[in-house]
Design brief:
Keywords: 4Fe-4S, Iron, Iron-sulfur, Metal-binding, Pyridoxal phosphate, S-adenosyl-L-methionine. This is L-lysine 2,3-aminomutase. It is a single chain. The protein is α/β, with parallel strands linked by helices. The strands form 3 sheets. Strands 5-6-7-8-9-10-11-12-13-14-15 form an 11-stranded mixed beta sheet. It has a two-stranded antiparallel ribbon with strand order 1-2. The radius of gyration is 22 Å and the shape is globular.
Length: 462
């Protein structure tokens, strides 16, 4: 049997790509060096600098040259995805930072004001720091979140960054240099000790940042030990990544691309389910030859590629965009997995969509795809109590309501239990909803409040 990798390599040799030979990145200090932005006015570029000094900004040459239609700027969805826009900050916050930038170049003054604004943007939503972090011997286990019984999230400390930053990112606090807000751990042994202790853990999600920014040697240190018998209960390895969009060269032409693919293949052949949790926000991200090549190589290694995205105003608030994206993903052998609701953090004011609209977009998009595209779940809110799916809008006993359920929850007993909220056409998050039918609180509220008040422990360790 011919090995998989040489076949892939031969195919790559015969394919032409419009891609840079090396990775080149720009941050807020290099905005003026991005040639394509010179078509914008000085006022527009200043607005970008204002926002980029509060919310993280990073974009690479591949994205600039291949994914953005510069004839359609600023409306182009990928331009909106990576370049800061004035509306991403409130008028008050924007004016504060604009005033600072007009009056000084002192980085300490700029940073002081930026941090004041950042703290107003809910840097860690859904109780990530207060409830998700496990404790061992009364000390927090650094770099780990354990919100759901079966699934552990691990944040490898090596390069907690991404190839480019998404302007909507709910983990923006990872990238602003404040260690008190960052999840990370460089000690693979600590991860392995934790996984070995809890046999209820079946899934490990390596996340960030973007784990695929790391060199393969680091991934080897985290993943290969999981092939030992004491980790047989860890059946699934998930890797959350935007690299297929922002740097597909990671699987094609980086120096350790072949080593990475062989690592993934080795994990699969050893019996692990390896899932690439790919973030695609718009079909434009799948339009280049090199991303198709990267997908082919990953699939040849035996991994499953599942796709997810939040519903985002200015980017994909259109059922036609979602239907086209899901159809293309199915064609390429990807599995549509989640439509999320934009989280209540960072630039949410710019991107959020009312829950009623989110359900409408999801339903209309699903109607336009075949059964293979209907694997996508949503719209789902990754809220404090768990992942809450909007199943629909209905009328019961004369009252218009949202029909909701938990897809995942801090208490597994909450999962799949339907519950109802009064219909609110303006609501954009779970906290905005009120129980239907005159009820005072949702069925989970008392137990969830007790968890938040440390009166009971989240039931993830059973």
């Amino acid at each position: 049997m011919t090995p998989v990798l040489p076949l892939i390599k031969k195919q790559f040799i015969t394919t032409q790509y419009n891609a840079p030979e090396h990775f080149q990145v720009y941050t807020e200090r290099q905005i003026d060096k991005i040639e394509a932005l010179k078509q914008l006015s000085e006022a527009q570029r200043f607005e970008m600098k204002v926002v980029a000094n509060v919310l993280p900004f990073r974009v690479n040459r591949y994205v600039i040259d291949n994914l953005i239609n510069w004839q359609n700027v600023p409306e182009d969805p990928i331009f909106q995805l990576v370049f800061p826009q004035k509306g991403m900050l409130s008028d008050e916050d924007y004016n504060q930072m604009a005033s600072v930038l007009r009056s000084t170049n002192d980085r300490s003054v700029i940073l002081k004001n930026a941090n004041e604004i950042r703290l107003r943007l809910n840097p860690h939503p859904a109780e990530q720091q207060s409830l998700n972090v496990p404790y061992e011997d009364n000390e927090p286990v650094e770099g780990i979140q354990h919100k759901y019984r079966e699934t552990v999230l691990f944040f490898p400390g090596q390069r907690q960054v991404c190839h480019s930053f998404c302007s909507f990112c709910f983990r923006w606090a990872q990238f602003i240099g404040d260690k008190s807000l960052r999840f990370s751990n460089t000690e693979a042994q600590k991860l392995h000790q934790y996984l070995a202790k809890y046999k209820s853990i079946s899934d490990l999600l390596i996340t960030g940042g973007d784990p695929m920014v790391m060199k393969t040697d680091h991934l080897v240190a985290y993943l290969e030990p999981l092939l030992r018998p004491e980790f047989d209960h860890v059946q699934t390895i998930r890797i959350g990544t935007k690299s297929l969009s922002f740097w597909p060269q990671r699987y094609v032409s980086d120096k350790d691309s072949a080593q990475l693919l062989l690592l993934l293949e080795r994990m699969v052949k050893a019996g692990k389910h390896v899932a690439i949790m790919a973030h695609f926000n718009h079909w434009q991200e799948m339009s280049t030859p090199i991303v198709c090549e990267a997908i082919s190589r990953l699939r040849a290694s035996g991994v499953v590629i599942r796709t997810q995205s939040p519903l985002l105003n200015h980017i994909n608030n259109d059922p036609d965009v979602w239907a086209r994206m899901w159809r293309e993903q199915v064609r390429l052998g990807l599995v549509p997995y989640y439509m999320f609701v934009e989280r209540d953090t960072g630039a949410r004011r710019y991107f959020e969509v009312p829950l009623a609209r989110a359900w409408e977009v999801y339903r209309e998009a699903l109607k336009r795809v075949s059964g293979l595209g209907r694997t996508a779940r949503g719209p789902s809110m990754s809220a404090g109590p768990g992942k809450v799916e909007i199943q629909g809008v209905s009328e019961i006993n004369g009252e218009q309501v949202f029909v909701l359920r938990f897809l995942q929850a801090r208490n597994p007993d909450w999962v799949q239990r339907p519950f109802f909220a009064r219909f609110d056409p303006e609501a954009t998050w779970l906290d905005h909803l009120k129980p239907a039918f005159g009820e005072e609180k949702f069925f989970f509220q008392d137990e969830y409040d007790a968890m938040r008040n440390k009166q009971v422990s989240p039931r993830v360790y059973e």
